[in-house]
Write a structure and sequence with these properties.
heterodimer, A: mainly alpha, elongated
Amino acid sequence: MLSNYIQVSLEHYLILSAIIFTIGMMGVLMRKNILVMLMGIELMLNGVNLSFVAFSYYTGNLNGQIMVFFVMTVAAAEAGVGLALAVTIFKKFKTINIQFFEKLKG
Amino acid sequence: MDMTTILFYILAIAIVVFSLGVVMTANPIFSALFLALTMVTLAFVYFLLNAPFIAGVQLIVYAGAVVVLFVMVMMLFDLKQEKEAFTKGKFTGFLKIASAGWLCGLIAGAIYMSTEMVVSGNQILDVNKASTKILAKELFSNYVFAFEALGILLLLIAVGAVSISRIKGGTHAK
């Protein structure tokens, strides 16, 4: 009975990916530092990637892995733009608190 | 209990601990360190799932490029003092944690009820079907348009990141 639940299946990977996604979301919601918020977004994207790869493995379909490749590239691009914005905020306000985002115009 | 199961549980616990470390540590440098550890551990999980190419890309792009980018930008900042790492307010903090936990439970319930519909029978991806060669053939035949669009996106991002970080004036200039 118990060994049925212990045996790793698709559900285990999906729940692990849900946990990673939720932890990343907590990071985005609860931190003030822009860098750590961007790290939380990266964690969320990684959780989604894990579920893609798990589905690809358990359904015998390669398309999930290709989608993961695209998601990784877009995540790297997003990190680049986010860090550029963080640099801009730091240059103007000498801190990287998220509350200065709204004052960043023009 | 076979080898894969034991390995999965060890890696899963490590991933959860490291990603909690990303969120919980007050020092951003330690957050970046925990992020790199999370990425490396996830790459091992991808090896377990017969995706060696994705695991390699994960190691190179995430654990290599993205985390190094974070640390490089952190070097530019003066991060000696950080008094308020977390957002203020006990009640809103409780609400945030509760909503995150609720979301996780919701996803878990949805997974528990719906995976029977998605996965039917034993059609696990074997290593010969998931080699890098086959992945590359797929990428450059069926997905070639998306691949080229991704190249244009990266070019745009490179130009945009430079131009954003060079902003000087504006309506709120000091």
